[in-house]
Amino acid sequence: MGSDLPTLKGLRAFEEAYRLRSFTAAAASLNVQQPAISYQIKCLEEDLGVILFDRKNGRPKPTPKAHELFETLSQAFDAIRETSNQLRSSSPSSSFTIVTYPGIGTYWLSNRLPFLSEDLNRSVKLVTLKRDEDLWQESADCWIAFGHGHWPGKDARLLFKEEVCPVAAPELAAQIFDSHLSIGTETTKIIELDDPEKRWLGWDAWFQKRVKVAQTSNKRIVVNDHGLAMHMTLAGSGVALAWLGVVDDLLSGGSLVRLSTQTLTSDAGYWLVGERGFFDTTRGNTVLESLVPGAHLDVAAIDVCDPE
Q1: Among 23, 44, 65, 158, which one is most buried in terms of CB atoms within 10 A?
Q2: Could you tell me which residue ranges the HTH lysR-type domain spans (predicted)?
């Protein structure tokens, strides 16, 4: 038998497939096609002379030899990740990159970046993108994403759950309160976030669950970005349905006014997301503590075992 190490690609493919119990999920985590994972693991099995996965019933089941390899491999990779993160953190010349959406980046994260930069002792770069698929294609140290906390190959901490209510600029809010206007009638324009996939709570859900009188106006201002919706709301262009966690600073500062004491919530939310093991590092915990001081947040369990 040779003394050379197996290929790094083969070992990484094996690690992800073992951990996720899925070649498809491993491919998504490593940003490759599923056949590439199958090929790398086949080559690794041929190199080692053992079978690592029982592929019966359309789902890869690790063999005893796979358990043995993973125990050693995971310890080695975790040590490499920890050392790499420590080296990155000790380099003042490199910036720390966060990727998120324009709305939360502008109205929630931007005010926290100076404190984060000071806590990390390095410059911080903020990249904002509208679409989820673009979010994960962008190289970053961490992400802030909307969802349920399940992203293959990544760890997540909940920042705040989706909780929405109508808001308006102070002058418009005063007119609505003084005139006893109803939101959604011809006399009040609403600003709506375009959401063809129905990912977020929108005005239709609000009128259905929180308002006794049905919405009577079809004159909605539709935009494709939450940040733009908030910008127009601040300018007094209409009433928007806002995420309370995102606009808390605007509400406390008086730039926006809540139009209802009621809220609408869902099981989704905004999550701080890092590569697997990110929150086991000093850097990961520094980021979380800096963004949400005193937070004691649970890890989002990732259990992906879909059939191939």
Answers
A1: 23
A2: 6-63
Burial class (CB in 10 A: 0-12, 13-18, 19+), 83: exposed
Q: Is 187 helix (H, G, I), strand (E, B) or coil?
A: coil
Q: Mind listing the pLDDT tens digit for each residue in 41-86? A: 999 999 999 999 998 877 889 999 999 999 888 888 878 877 776 6
Q: Would you state the CATH architecture of domain 8-89?
A: Orthogonal Bundle (1.10)
Domain spans in the chain, listed from the N-terminal domain onward: 8-89, 96-160+268-291, 161-265
Kindly list the distances between the CA atom of residue 48 and the CA atoms of 7, 75, 77, in Å, as whole numbers in the listed order. 11, 19, 19
CB atoms within 10 A of CB 70: 18
Domain 96-160+268-291 has CATH 3.30.70.2640: no
Select the CATH number that applies to the domain covering 161-265 from these four: 3.40.190.10, 3.30.70.260, 3.40.630.30, 2.60.40.10.
3.40.190.10
Two tokens at 295? 């937070």
Rounded CA-CA distance 144/271 in Å is 5
Length of the chain: 308
Check: CB of residue 107 under 8 Å from CB of residue 231: no
Cα–Cα distance measured from residue 52 to residue 62, given in angstroms and rounded to the nearest whole number: 6
Cα 84 off chain centre by: 23
In angstroms, the Cα distances linking 45 to 6, 74, 115, 203, 305 are 10, 17, 49, 54, 21
